[in-house]
Write a structure and sequence with these properties.
single chain, mainly alpha, 2 helices, 24% helix
Length: 90
């Protein structure tokens, strides 16, 4: 798992990431998400066991390896491409 920070600020008048996320979730009929990155991570960690104990602040700059088996049942849309072959669980 990796984390990213904005390299440069967005243009004036452009919504931030959390605002865009809130708008997407609202358009999909979901909950109103928390207003801070820390609160969003806490919500994710409460719902996804593989993320328990992780937070944006504690995630190392080099990322953290997480067990792929905990994600194997999720219907990711990514398929095989020239540079990527999805892991197949046994």
């Amino acid at each position: 798992m990796q984390k990213f920070a904005a390299a440069v600020p967005g243009p004036a008048g452009v919504s931030g990431d959390l605002s865009a996320l809130a708008q997407l979730i609202a358009a999909a009929g979901g909950i109103t998400p928390p207003a801070t990155v820390d609160a969003i991570w806490a919500l994710l960690a409460a719902e996804v066991p593989a993320l328990a104990g992780l937070s944006y602040r504690t995630l190392p700059e080099t990322g953290r390896v997480i067990d792929h088996a905990e994600w194997a049942a999720l219907p990711f849309p990514e398929g095989e491409t020239l540079h990527y072959t999805p892991h197949r669980s046994a």
